[in-house]
Design a protein that fits this description.
Number of helices: 12
Largest sheet: 7 strands, parallel
Radius of gyration: 21 Å
Strand content: 15-25%
CATH superfamily of the largest domain: Glycogen Phosphorylase B
Distance between the termini: 11 Å
Helix content: 25-40%
Number of strands: 13
Strand order of the largest sheet: 3-2-1-4-5-6-7
CATH architecture of the largest domain: 3-Layer(aba) Sandwich
CATH class of the largest domain: Alpha Beta
Number of domains: 2
CATH topology of the largest domain: Rossmann fold
Shape: elongated
Order of helices and strands: EHEEEHEEHEEHHEHEHEHEHEHHH
């Protein structure tokens, strides 16, 4: 099967393209948001094809996966085919709804031609999709392998653009934890894009020394090498869809501390870490693991077993295969 889709969410796409289908990606000279083409920082198989926007009209494809509202019109303009009418289509929703969670209408609500596929059950519950058909295909993540050592008695977190996204991703919690009097007991390293902005916030808050623990935009392979040296993984997001970095940390064999929000409680097993809305309780568990590395290691192994079962790539690809085959049969 040939699938037209846009390169929007690199980590999710990396998992999806491991399947057996050919994928057509629009590309333009600027490689902007609507024409990024193939990934530059992930390794994708040869069956992922870049196609210049001007050639899409003559390109054959069997299905289109939309991920942003305007892509429906882009597909019509660039290919001459209307999604859900001339070609089977799905709308993949990566995100939680906006600030008015339970009442936010989905941009594809109430139409019947294009099913909405959510990446978590929480997202499907919260989005108001009206009478539109919906499904859930939970994340699948490539297994990086067990790498946990935990020799660094501290915490690691991955957050992209924390200053721009603010409280949504728990940026205030990162600053709060770094400012605690006992923070030296459990040093906190943060990885991701936008660390320079967080460093500026840290300096303004009198936390200049902490800036050396902010690691900006490392290549994926380097980040996966560094994370498992920390004693535990800390997930501080308040209102995001389930972060793939949390799943990757569990697959690495890291024990997990997570703010109890959105899908975190379903993602982290009880014996693999602690999910709580009490930040002090999370820090107490961190201290226990710092004092007892064997307990941390056992929790990390449990987290990995759970992640392999729940977020394994074979299950993810098989569920997408069933959706795609059902739409095109």
């Amino acid at each position: 099967m040939r699938i037209l889709m846009w390169h929007v969410h690199g980590s999710w796409t990396t998992s999806f393209v491991q399947g057996r289908h050919d994928v057509v990606l629009p590309v333009d000279e600027e490689r902007g948001p609507d024409g990024r083409g193939r990934a530059r920082t992930w390794s994708w198989p040869e069956r992922v094809h870049e196609t210049p926007v001007g050639q899409l009209g003559g390109t054959a494809f069997d299905c289109v996966i939309l991920q942003r509202p305007h892509e429906k019109e882009l597909c019509r303009q660039w290919t001459g085919r209307v999604p859900g009418v001339d070609v089977p289509a799905f709308y993949l929703e990566h995100n939680t709804p906006g600030c008015h969670a339970a009442t936010t209408r989905h941009p594809m609500a109430d139409q019947h031609a294009i099913p909405i596929v959510h990446v978590t059950h929480f997202n499907r519950l919260m989005w108001d999709c009206g009478r539109a058909p919906t499904a859930v295909v939970e994340h699948g993540v490539i297994d990086p392998g067990y790498r946990y050592t935990g020799e660094a008695a501290g915490l690691a977190s991955v957050v992209n653009e924390p200053v721009r996204r603010g409280r949504v991703v728990g940026a205030d919690l990162l600053l709060e934890l770094a400012a605690r009097r006992d923070s030296a007991r459990r040093p906190l390293d943060v990885y991701g894009m936008g660390m320079r902005d967080l460093a500026a916030e840290a300096v303004s808050a009198g936390l200049s020394q902490w800036t050396s623990r902010l690691h900006d935009d490392l290549p994926q392979h380097e980040m996966l090498d560094r994370l498992p040296h920390h004693r535990a993984y800390l997930h501080v997001c308040r209102w995001t869809s389930l972060g793939l970095s949390l799943i990757e940390a569990m697959l690495l064999g890291m024990p997990v501390l997570a703010v109890d929000a959105t899908e975190a409680s379903a993602a982290v097993p009880p014996d693999g870490g602690l999910v709580s809305s009490d930040v002090d309780a999370l820090m107490r568990r961190a201290d226990q693991w710092i004092d007892d590395p064997d307990s941390a290691r056992a929790a990390g192994r449990a987290a990995r077993r759970h992640a392999l079962e729940k977020f394994g790539l074979p299950r993810f690809l098989a569920e997408w295969d069933r959706l795609l085959e059902g739409a095109t049969s």
